[in-house]
Amino acid sequence: FTQTAFDAPNFVIDPSTARDDNKWQVGFALDAPVTAHLGLSFALTYERNNSNIVNYTYDNWSILGGPTARF
Fold it and tell me: Dihedral of CA 41/32/26/3: which sign?
């Protein structure tokens, strides 16, 4: 959890409102070796940002995966 409160408004976006965000992020990562030098990697993350300025509010899932190599 991260809370960010800005001191002053951004005059380009909204000159009357100072931005205030609450962000939640959680994830899971797995790195599985296949051989001594090669493996597979997988990550699943969820991120949600609640902001008092609508353009900065989002809800996002990310899925990443691929090979890994050890030298």
Answer: negative
